[in-house]
Amino acid sequence: PLFLVEGMQRRMGKLRGKKVAVLGLAFKADTDDERDSLSHKLIRLLERELAEVAVHDPHVATPTQTFDEAVLDADAVVIAANHTEFCGPDALARIADGARSKALLVDPWNALGAAQVFAFSDEVLHLTASGLPRA
What are the strands of the beta sheet with 19-23, ordered from one edge? Predict the structure, then answer.
């Protein structure tokens, strides 16, 4: 989580007041198990930096926002769990439609298929359209 937050700060500057969508609270893909998940630590670190954090996870019992609400006008989107719903071109299109243009995408799972942990949305759209191998 610290690596991700520091990487976001290097690319975006201060996170104060910036909306960060965190997609996924579960420890493993397509499960509802939040035990030992690092997403909660990531959220605490982002809140400590005074970012506005929006969270979505379709599998957990913890109440979260809808996907569209979480990514709407986000300055950054973090794929924190590699749920099927967050993988591939459909998820990327939904993020691109809702998040701010030039939003930073943080994808340590390579769920979007760009082979970049940190990339701006226009770069990810270009890389995935170029026919790079998908995860």
Answer: 52-56, 19-23, 76-79, 104-106, 118-120
pTM over 0.85: yes
User: For the segment 90-130, what is each residue's pLDDT rounded down to a tens digit?
Assistant: 999 999 999 999 999 999 999 998 899 999 998 888 877 75
3-state secondary structure of 80: coil
CA–CA dist 108, 1 (Å, integer): 10
For 50, residues 6+ apart whose C-beta sits below 8 A from its C-beta are: 15, 16, 17
Distance CA 32, CA 68 (A): 20
d(CA 131, CA 56): 29
Q: In angstroms, rounded to a whole number, what is the distance separating the alpha carbons of residues 7 and 15?
A: 11
Q: Model confidence over 8-57: pLDDT tens digits?
A: 999 999 999 999 999 999 999 999 999 999 999 999 999 999 999 999 99
